[in-house]
User: Which sequence fits this backbone?
């Protein structure tokens, strides 16, 4: 039953050293850096796959945001981890994240503006139909 | 821990030195002023914006010349975020020159197309400040911010003819692939940031000089490899190297012609500036191949050799089959990125400061020559294309050689220079890049590059033949050449001959001067 509803929990249970409950709860409440890097990498892969396979411009934009957020998670994870290991100066990553968020907002505004300009001329947001320029 | 954090923060001085970013500040201020003038001036007075933009660019150029000739102060500021060296100054000069020539080309064009001139010129100035920051950034944060300032302004400029579907499409494609590549670059930066935490307890860094120090004491060497590879892909998109070049022809064809001129010369040069700085200085050559640093260096250098070869080949072969002049020039710009990569490989392959500075200056010189001849060629293409960029096919150039000899001869000169005929700038640029590669021992790479130059003769000479030896079947009236475009053509023609005949002064200025020489000046 647990297998059906909480596969991730069961996975952690099996992976935890010795398989004891305290280790499981410990790895949930105090996950180490690798968990965050894996989440970042998964987001990155989902984003790249989305950009390459999706045909709706808005979905492509969202996929690009996913990649940016994957980088954000990595920055924050590294920064926090290095602070926890005793280096108080490791705030560069968090500062970088703020820059990325600002840039992502600006990019989203410009991108939507471009889509609106395009939609006024040719009522579509499907990239397959935007095929005026090709060799 | 909180107390120690507070103490550390207190001990850090901000290290502000506004003089060191004076050219960037001037260009940004000019951009804001242009925007304000455009907002508050009466419609009749809006023509001023182009002149104001030019004044700002010339002032920034004067500031950078001042920094070039007699700078005695510190060579970096903001804790290494901004650096001052000949690499930066050279590429700053290229950015300002490209921008000034683009303003001159677009002054009359923007009025003729009924486009908002003030917006165009302020976007151009902001893009220029982004390019300059990319050249001056000694930290990945600044390089990323400069890249985004440049890219966001350029996305808008590519789609500037809002009612034209081709312009919309070009802008959209540029936006999607541009932000995709920025995201790759960012992910690479994140990995490098984490990987440069050291075993000795230092936190991760984004400072390029620091990264170079920490390669061998990195906590996670595999992440360094992954991060460097991602950054290579990100920069590869920006400068349009071959597997990542697919956006280039579409974007260059669809964008308004003066914007294409700007995009082919400016952002590419700026991309090379930060690409060079990150890889040549951040992952530098080391004699011990077995170390982490040696392995990373060998990996990126090998990748770049392959990229250079396929970039040159795909660019030249792709240009042969084009029927649109803008598209042909787009493929030619891919090929030229490949030639510049040859010099890049030479700069990365050596640890000797003299050879390295020669190779770096050869890449900067190459981008300068390319910018000069490319802007000249696109100025003529803009005139012939007329309003709405309607006449950009090879057929539109049939037989115009004897009806409009001035334009045809200047365009032919630029084509010959792009091909690399002796006495022209293109020849000297190629010689410098190839010589640097020969010094570094890349003989086969140079042979492939020379063969590619031979291929490129086909499509450059084709345009000349079309202009002079084809009969024209449709009627054609010579376009009126505005004074500002005449200025551009004079500057670029003189530049082509000057750089082709007397390159030494410029090359010496682009070379890294040893500190002792600086002190005695």
Assistant:
């Amino acid at each position: 039953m647990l297998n059906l509803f909480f596969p991730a929990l069961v996975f952690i249970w099996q992976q935890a050293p010795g398989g004891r409950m305290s280790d499981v709860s410990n790895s949930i409440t105090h996950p180490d850096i690798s968990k965050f890097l894996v989440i970042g990498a998964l987001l990155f892969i989902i984003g790249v796959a989305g950009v390459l396979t999706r045909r709706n411009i808005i979905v492509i934009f969202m996929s690009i945001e996913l990649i940016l957020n994957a980088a954000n998670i990595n920055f924050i994870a590294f920064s926090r981890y290095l602070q926890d290991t005793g280096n108080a100066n490791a705030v560069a990553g968090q500062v970088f994240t703020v820059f990325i968020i600002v840039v992502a907002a600006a990019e989203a505004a410009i991108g939507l503006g471009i889509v609106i300009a395009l939609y006024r001329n040719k009522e579509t947001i499907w990239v397959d139909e935007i095929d005026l320029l090709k060799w | 821990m909180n107390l120690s954090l507070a103490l550390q923060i207190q001990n850090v001085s901000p290290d502000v030195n506004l003089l060191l970013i004076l050219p960037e500040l001037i260009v940004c201020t000019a951009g804001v002023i242009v925007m304000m003038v455009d907002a508050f001036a009466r419609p009749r007075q809006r023509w001023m914006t182009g002149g104001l933009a030019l004044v700002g660019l010339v002032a920034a150029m004067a500031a950078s010349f001042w920094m070039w000739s007699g700078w005695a102060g510190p060579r970096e500021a903001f804790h290494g975020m901004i650096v001052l060296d000949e690499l930066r100054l050279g590429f700053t000069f290229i950015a300002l020159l490209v921008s000034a020539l683009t303003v001159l080309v677009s002054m009359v064009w923007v009025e003729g197309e009924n486009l908002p001139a003030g917006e165009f010129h302020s976007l151009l100035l902001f893009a220029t400040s982004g390019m300059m920051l990319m050249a001056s950034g000694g930290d990945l944060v600044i390089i990323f911010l400069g890249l985004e300032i440049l890219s966001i302004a350029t996305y808008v400029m590519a789609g500037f003819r809002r009612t034209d579907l081709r312009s919309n499409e070009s802008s959209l494609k540029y936006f999607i692939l541009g932000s995709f590549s920025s995201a790759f670059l960012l992910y690479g930066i994140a990995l490098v940031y984490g990987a440069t935490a050291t075993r000795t307890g230092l936190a991760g860094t984004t400072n390029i000089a620091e990264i170079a120090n920490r390669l061998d004491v990195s906590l996670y060497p595999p992440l360094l490899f992954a991060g460097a590879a991602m950054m290579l892909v990100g920069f590869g998109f920006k400068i349009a190297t071959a597997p990542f070049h697919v956006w280039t022809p579409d974007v260059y064809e669809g964008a308004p012609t003066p914007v294409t001129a700007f995009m082919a010369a400016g952002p590419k040069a700026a991309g090379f500036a930060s690409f060079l700085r990150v890889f040549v200085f951040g992952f530098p050559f080391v004699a011990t191949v077995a170390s982490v640093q040696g392995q990373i260096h060998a990996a990126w250098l090998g990748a770049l050799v392959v990229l250079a070869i396929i970039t040159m080949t795909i660019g030249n072969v792709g240009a042969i089959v084009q029927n649109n002049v803008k598209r042909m020039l787009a493929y030619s710009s891919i090929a030229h990125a490949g030639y510049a990569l040859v010099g890049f490989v030479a700069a990365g392959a050596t640890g000797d400061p003299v050879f390295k500075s020669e190779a770096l200056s050869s890449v900067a010189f190459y981008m300068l020559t390319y910018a000069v001849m490319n802007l000249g060629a696109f100025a003529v293409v803009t005139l012939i294309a007329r309003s709405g960029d309607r006449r950009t096919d090879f057929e539109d150039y049939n037989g115009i050689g004897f009806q409009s000899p001035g334009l045809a001869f200047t365009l032919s000169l630029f084509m010959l220079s792009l091909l690399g005929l002796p006495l022209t700038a293109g020849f000297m640029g190629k010689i410098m890049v190839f010589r640097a590669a020969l010094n570094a021992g890349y003989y086969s790479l140079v042979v492939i590059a020379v063969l590619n130059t031979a291929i490129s003769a086909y499509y450059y000479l084709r345009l000349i033949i079309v202009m002079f030896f084809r009969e024209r079947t449709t009627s054609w009236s010579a376009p009126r050449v505005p004074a500002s475009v005449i200025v551009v053509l004079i500057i670029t023609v003189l530049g082509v001959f000057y750089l082709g005949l007397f390159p030494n002064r410029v090359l010496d200025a682009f070379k890294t001067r040893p500190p002792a020489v600086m002190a005695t000046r």
About this structure: Residues 516-521 of chain B have pLDDT under 50 and may be disordered. Residues 15-510 of chain B form one domain.
